[in-house]
């Protein structure tokens, strides 16, 4: 339920940056994914790559032993020494709270093969895999960036308690919602995102007194904005607009 009272904020000044781990035996794919992630996330996360199950397991153990948090794993479907699903399942032993995703090519998604689709469905049911992420198809690929952003946000929501300055109700794949959330992240504004059919989303819509059009933003002080612009939110928060 939405609240206008801010809980205590947990501060952890000595915590090292969380890690994003890419595991794929395809050198070209690994370079493309690494380039995309470094351009957007290198200031906030440690980004590492490995080319095999064996190397990845060594790194997972090392990260755990050194008390580094693993935020997300992006793992290729087929590795040189095993299956990506098997690696993601083993990763839970070392980092049970990490978000785990299968990295697939645009043309090689498991849905094209019934056997692979069944294997993915079983892994998802068991909680071994959280999502399938299509690899980047261009120098700037917002669909890929959006998928990574979703994983990071979900990991932070579960593992980095914080006061939500803004709570947003919207559809996961909405372009307008994605742009709005991206602006908040770049501005360092803590927010929560909820789908309209989730319990939290329904509660927020009830508070707002409307069901749309989406997205709808509810500020920490109870103010409601329907399809807000970045400028409206900046002004409502008493921040200075940049640019």
Written account of the structure:
- The chain has 2 domains: 19-157, Rossmann fold (3-Layer(aba) Sandwich), CATH 3.40.50; 164-236, Glutaredoxin, CATH 3.40.30.
- The strands form 3 sheets. Strands 2-1-3-6-7 form a 5-stranded parallel sheet, with helices on both faces. A 4-stranded mixed sheet has the order 9-8-10-11, with helices on both faces.
- It contains 8 helices and 11 strands.
- The radius of gyration is 19 Å and the shape is elongated.
- Helix 2 runs parallel beside helix 3.
- It is α/β, with parallel strands linked by helices and 243 residues long.
- Residues 1-13 have low confidence and may be disordered.
Give the % helix.
40-55%
Under CATH, the topology of the largest domain can be stated as Rossmann fold
Number of strands: 11
Query: So, CATH architecture of the largest domain?
Result: 3-Layer(aba) Sandwich
Gap from first CA to last CA? 35 Å
Q: For the record, what is the CATH homologous superfamily label of the largest domain?
A: Response regulator
Order of helices and strands: EHEHEEEHEHEHEHEHEEH
Count structural domains. 2
Q: Low-confidence segments, ≥5 residues, pLDDT <50?
A: 1-13
Give me the number of helical elements: 8
Strand content: 15-25%
The largest sheet is:
5 strands, parallel
């Amino acid at each position: 339920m939405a609240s206008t009272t801010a809980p205590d904020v947990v501060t952890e000044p000595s915590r090292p940056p969380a890690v994003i781990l890419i595991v794929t035996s395809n050198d070209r794919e690994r370079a493309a994914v690494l380039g995309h992630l470094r351009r957007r996330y290198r200031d906030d996360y440690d980004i590492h790559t490995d080319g095999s199950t064996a190397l990845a397991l060594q790194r997972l153990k090392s990260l755990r032993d050194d008390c580094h948090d693993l935020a997300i794993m992006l793992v290729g479907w087929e590795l040189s020494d095993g299956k990506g699903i098997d690696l993601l399942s083993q990763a839970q032993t070392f980092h049970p709270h990490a978000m785990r995703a299968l990295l697939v090519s645009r043309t090689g998604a498991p849905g094209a093969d019934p056997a692979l689709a069944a294997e993915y469905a079983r892994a998802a049911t068991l909680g071994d895999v959280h999502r399938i992420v299509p690899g980047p198809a261009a120098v700037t690929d917002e669909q890929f960036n959006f998928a990574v952003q979703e994983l990071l946000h979900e990991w932070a929501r579960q593992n980095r308690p914080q006061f939500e300055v803004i709570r947003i109700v919207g559809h996961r794949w909405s372009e307008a919602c994605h742009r709005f959330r991206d602006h908040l992240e770049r501005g360092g504004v803590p927010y929560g995102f909820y789908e309209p059919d989730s319990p939290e989303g329904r509660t927020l819509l009830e508070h707002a007194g409307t069901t749309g059009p989406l997205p709808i933003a509810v500020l920490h002080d109870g103010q409601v904005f329907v399809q807000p612009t970045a400028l409206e939110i900046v002004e409502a928060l008493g921040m200075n607009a940049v640019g």
